[in-house]
Amino acid sequence: MPELPEVETVVRRLRPTLLGREIEAVEVLDPRFCTPASPERFEGSLSGVTVTEVGRRGKYIVVALSSAQTLLMHLRMTGTLLIDPVVVQGHERLRLNLSGGVTVVFNDPRRFGTGHLLESADVDSYFSSRLGLEPFDRDFTADHFFSLTRDRRSPLKNFLLDQKLVAGIGNIYADEALFRARLHPLRMPRGVTREQAAQLRLGIIDALQAGIDAGGATIDDFRDPDGAWGAYQSEFLVHRREGQGCPECGNVIVRFKVGGRSTYCCEQCQPRPSRVKVSR
């Protein structure tokens, strides 16, 4: 699933292309994309409006419109937004024709991606009930992050994936951040010291920034709007590196399940808590 760095990569490419352009025609090719709105209502609301801003909140793409509405899109597992695609693989769900001859296509083989229209005045309240602060927010301080850990009863890996606590982190960057902080994915948050929480906060920020700098990670389907793959997968420290040597100590990286998610770590650098068993 595209995570914060992948979505940020998409937004940075979309912004200069979409800003100031009028949406001249809209075609919903899969009614499931805009549920619960009907395709006809969705198309009618977007047609003839101008894009005034393109941004991101967590893993959401946020497109503000001249109609005082905002289009929220979520790529989910396999969604991609492509600008003027030469070839689309038969999984188009939304097509936008914009002024200047620009076409944007939402392509999604597994059909989990979504698009919703909200009144712009309601966007903040929509996100406040769904997302915590994201790591690049200036209020995401060491004290704030430490406070989040105090009463959590699920392992650190699950804690990091909870979007209501920290927005934007998924499976890749949780593994990479925990390795940077030298914390085992099965450690309990409430047992983490203030210093360890501060290190994990820095590990999160560093991992996410590295992903952004590399244009995201392509493991399965992720592509940027020009169709290019990300490069961060070649820089993974532990994620997807089962059986390989740890870049720090040389110990073999292991894989196990946490909350049903494949999880990777070096149990030399990230000591497993006592009396904790892993599920392979």
Describe the structure.
With 280 residues, this protein is an alpha+beta fold. The protein folds into 2 domains: 4-128, Alpha-Beta Barrel (N-terminal domain of MutM-like DNA repair proteins); 142-265, Orthogonal Bundle (Helicase, Ruva Protein, domain 3). The chain is built from 7 helices and 10 strands. It has helices at residues 4-18, 39-46, 123-128, 142-149, 156-161, 171-181, 194-213, and strands spanning 23-28, 51-57, 60-65, 69-74, 80-83, 92-98, 102-107, 114-119, 254-258, 261-265. Strand 9 (254-258) and strand 10 form a beta hairpin. Helix 6 (171-181) crosses helix 7. It is elongated, with a radius of gyration of 20 Å. The chain starts with a helix and ends in a 15-residue tail after the last strand. The relative contact order is 0.14. The mean pLDDT is 95. Belongs to the FPG family.
Concise account of the structure shown:
This protein has 280 residues and is an alpha+beta fold.
